[in-house]
Design a protein that fits this description.
By secondary structure, the chain is mainly alpha-helical. The protein has helices at about 5-30, 40-65, 70-80, 90-115, 125-135, 140-165, 175-190, 195-200, 210-230, 240-265, 270-280, 290-315, 320-325, 330-360. Helix content is about 75%, strand content about 0%. Helix 2 (about 40-65) crosses helix 13 (about 320-325), helix 2 (about 40-65) crosses helix 14 (about 330-360) and helix 5 (about 125-135) crosses helix 10.
Amino acid sequence: MQDQRTSFWTTPILAFCLSLLLSVSLAPALGLVDYQQYDFWLFWVFSMLILALPFTILEIALAKRAQSTPLQAFVKLTREADRSTRWRLIGWGAVVFIPFLAGGILEFAAQHIDTQFTLPFSHSILLLICAVVAVALSLLPRLILFIALFVATLAVIIIGVLSNTVHTWQWTAFELKEWAKVVTLTLVTGGLGLGLYWQNAVNAVKTEQKALPVVLPIWLAQVLGLGAFIFVSKVHSNLHAVVLLIAAVILAGIFLQYVREQFLERQVSIVIQAIILLLPILVWAIPQASSAFYDVVIFFGLALCFAHAVFAGWLMKISHLRKSINFSSEASYNVWRVLIRIIVPLSIILALIGWIMALTGV
C-alpha cells in the first residue's frame, strides 16, 4: 500500500491516464471516433456534474467508511447494512472485470500496431506477449509505474494532437442512443465502478475529515482526461500506435497490481488469483471475438456502476455515508443522495435501453 501523501496525488494521475486511454480504446465501440458534435459534448459536460461527480464522491465515501480495498470492504459494508452476502459480488465482479478491461485495452493497442506495421503474425500473438509483459510490470514499485504511465499518456496526447486534422463541428438532433454514449463515456471510460479510485485513495482519506478534498482532484483529472479524448480519438501514425501500446501495457500492469493487492488482503488462494488475473485477459486472443467483448465491457461496466449506486443509495444506512462524506450542509447531502439514488440509476437504465436499441437496429 502507498503512503498517504503518495496516495493523494497518484489517484488523480490514475484518473487522468485511465480516462484518456479507456476512451481511446473504446472509441470505435462507442462510435465516438472524430465525433465533433456540440450537443453531444454539452451533454457530456452536464453528465460529468450530475453523474461522475456524485459517483466519485460515492467511491471515496465508501473508501473512508470501510478503510480497506473494495473486495475486503464489501464484507464489512454488507454486514453493517445487514444485507445479503450476495451484494459482495459487486466487489468480485469488479476484480474480474478489471483484468478483462486490461485485455481490451491491450487488444485495441495490439490491433493498431498490426494495422500500422502489417505484422507477419496475428495481433493476438502480440496481445499474449503484452499480457506477459504486463504481468512482469505489475511486480514493479507503483511509483515507477505511475511515472511511466503519465509520461506515456502525455506522449499519446501530444502525438495525437499534432497529427489531428481539423474537423467541422456541428449541431445534431440528440437521441437516446447518444445519451447511452454520454453515460458510458462518463462512467465506464471514466473508470468509475471499478473501485480503483477507492482503492488508491484508502490511505489518503484517513487524514481527511471530508471527502471533497480527495474527490475534486480525481474528478477534475477525469474531466481533463476525457476532454483530451476529443482531440485524440484516433490512432494516426506508427509512432502514435507504439506509444499507445506502451501506455496500454503499463496501465494493464497497474490494473493487475491493484487486483493482486485486493486478493492478498482478502487472502485468496494463489490458484484463484492466477485464474482471475490471466484468463479475462487471454480470452481477448480468441479470433473474431473482440467486437462482442467490447459490448460486454460496455454493459458490464454500466451494470457495476448501477449496482454500486443501488447498494449505497438504497441499502446502506443513511448515517454511515453522511459521516463519511461530511458535507458542509444537510442540503448538499440531500442533493447528492437524490443524484445517487435516482438520477444515476435512471441514467444508466436509459443508457442500457439506448445500447439495446443501437445493437438491435431499432
